[in-house]
Amino acid sequence: MFESLKKKFSETVGKITEKVSSGQEPRSEEDKSEDRGPEPIPEGKPEEEVRTEEPDDTSSEEPAPDAGEGGSGFLSFFREKRITEKDVDDVLWDLEMALLESDVALEVAEKITTELKEELVGRKVKRSTEISEYTMEALKKAVKDVLSVDGVDLPQLVEKKKPLVIMFVGINGTGKTTTIAKVARYFMKKGLEPVIAAADTFRAGAIEQIGQHADKLGVKLISHRKGADPAAVAFDAVSHAKAQGKDVVLIDTAGRMQTNVNLMDEMAKIKRVVRPDLIVFVGDALTGNDAIEQAARFDEAVGIDAVILTKADADARGGAALSIGYMIKRPIIFMGIGQGYDDIMEFKPEWMVEQLFA
Ligand code: GDP
C-alpha cells in the first residue's frame, strides 16, 4: 500500500541528510572556541542570580561527539551547521515532482514541500543521524497536517440520532455498493441495526446487486422496481427504520458520470426528501486526481460531509489518500482495504503516517 509515496519520502530524507552532511565546512579557530560552552559561574554568586538569561542555541548545544576532544580531533570537520536553502531546494523540487507523479494534488505537493522547507532552513544540526531524524519528523508533520481534516465523529453521531440517515454518492465502479455492505457490517458489529435503501433505480442490476449483499448480511432492504423515484425509496427506508426502531439507514444511489445533470438533480431531490444526517462520497483511490474531481462535483451539487476511499489495498501511489481530504476540506472516514465485508477501516491520519514512514 502506498509504496511509491513511501519510497519517495524515504529517498527525500536520505538525500537531504547527504546534502547537508556533505555541505559541512571545516571548522575555523573561531568556531572551535564556541565549544567551550557557557561561561563558568563566578564564585560566591548564587546560581539563580547568574542564570538570568537562557543560553542561546549555540552555547547550549553539546559539542558534537564526532568533533573529538575540544573539537581538535581528527573528525573535527563535523561541526554544527545551519541548513540553508541551497541544501534543500533541489531535493524539495524532486520531491514535489515525485508527489505529482504519485497523483498527489499540486496544492498538497506544494504545501508539503513548503512546510518542510520552513522547518528545515535555518535549523542547526550536528550529526547526520540528527539531520535524518529531524528531516523525517518534519516530513511526518507536514504529511499529518494535510491529512488532518476535522469533521465527522461517526460513533458520536450514531449515538445522538436514531435512525442515523447516511446517503452514499459516487460514480459506478468505485466500490460504492460493496462499501455500503461493509458499512452495514461495521454498524452490525457495534450491535446496531441498519436498513439499506436501494435508491439506485436507474439500473435493475444495481437493485439486484445491493439486494444480494443485504441477503448475505441479513439486513433489511427497501427497494422499488427499476425506474421508480429514488427519493421515494429513500423515504420509505427512513419510514421503515422509524417504525421498526432501526438505528441506521444506508442509502445507495445511482452513479452515472458525475457530469450528468440529471444525476445531480436526482441526488438533490433525495437530499431534499430525506434530509440525510450525512452525505458520504465514495471514491476509488486508484483513480487519483479523478476521485478528487468527482468529490468536488458532488460537493458542489449536494454538499458532501465525508469521504470513503476504496481499494487502498491495491493503491501503490497513495496520491488520492493523501490529497482528497485537504483538497475538498472533508475528512476521510473509512478506507476500503479489500473485497470482503470486513475489509474496511476507520481512517486516522496517524495510521496513514505510520504506513508512509514504516
Ligand atoms: P459500484 O459500482 O461503485 O457499486 O462498485 P462495486 O461495489 O460493485 O465494486 C466494484 C468492484 O470493486 C468490485 O469487484 C468490488 O469487490 C471491488 N472493491 C470494492 N471495494 C474494494 C476495496 O476496498 N478493495 C478492493 N481491492 N476491491 C474493492
Question: What would you say this structure looks like, in words?
Answer:
By secondary structure, the chain is an alpha/beta fold. It folds into two domains: 1-24 and 74-148, SRP54, nucleotide-binding domain (Four Helix Bundle (Hemerythrin (Met), subunit A), Up-down Bundle), CATH 1.20.120.140; 154-346, Rossmann fold (3-Layer(aba) Sandwich), CATH 3.40.50.300. It is built from 15 helices and ten strands. The chain has helices at residues 3-22, 29-34, 47-50, 57-60, 85-101, 106-120, 128-147, 154-160, 176-189, 204-217, 230-244, 261-274, 289-302, 319-328, 349-357; strands spanning 81-82, 124-125, 164-169, 194-199, 220-222, 248-253, 278-284, 306-310, 332-336, 344-346. The chain has an eight-stranded mixed sheet, with helices on both faces. The longest helix has 20 residues, at 3-22. It is elongated. The model is unreliable at 25-76 (pLDDT under 50). Bound molecules: guanosine-5'-diphosphate. Guanosine-5'-diphosphate binds at residues 172-178, 255, 310-311, 313-314, 336-339, 343. Residues 172-178, 255, 310-311, 313-314, 336-339, 343 line the site of guanosine-5'-diphosphate (GDP).
